[in-house]
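Budget justification aside, the reviewers requested a transparent look at the raw inputs and outputs of the sequence design task funded under Objective 1. We therefore reproduce one unedited record. The lines immediately below are the structure tokens for a 136-residue chain.
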């Protein structure tokens, strides 16, 4: 069975939908949903996203999202560090983790230390995968 990819929202070459989203991103999503439907793709510079919007898409994601989609590519490192699926927490466990991490990840802390953060040299470390284990 061959699946057809969702339609792409029209945009400019190279910029894609970036300019349209800059002014009113919520309006962009609402308009695009009305014109194209609940599932579509967008581009913003070199980034590409698939959007699922509306009540049906949200219900589908809530009820079947974990069995249909994987976040290993984007959240795998964080999950390995914490030893659990951090992004999938809900309810009391989510609130507990947010409370524990909140002070260290606050905007105020980052703002207060922004100059020091920028002054630090960026150190790149090579990493790879060896027998399904991340090495760094």
């Amino acid at each position: 069975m061959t699946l057809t990819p969702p339609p792409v929202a029209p945009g400019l070459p190279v910029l894609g939908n970036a300019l349209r989203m800059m002014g009113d991103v919520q309006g962009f999503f609402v308009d695009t949903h009305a014109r194209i439907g609940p599932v579509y793709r967008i581009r913003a510079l070199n980034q590409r996203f698939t959007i699922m919007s509306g009540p049906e898409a949200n219900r589908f994601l809530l009820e079947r999202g974990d069995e249909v989609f994987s976040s290993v590519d984007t959240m795998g490192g964080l999950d390995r560090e914490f030893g659990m699926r951090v992004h999938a927490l809900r309810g009391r466990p989510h609130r507990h983790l947010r409370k524990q991490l909140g002070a260290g990840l606050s905007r105020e802390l980052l703002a207060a230390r922004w100059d020091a953060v920028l002054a630090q040299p960026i150190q790149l470390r090579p990493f790879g995968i060896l027998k399904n284990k991340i090495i760094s």
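Confidence is low (pLDDT under 50) at residues 123-136. The helical segments are 18-23, 25-36, 54-68, 72-82, 91-102, 107-119. Computational costs for records of this kind are itemized in the attached budget.
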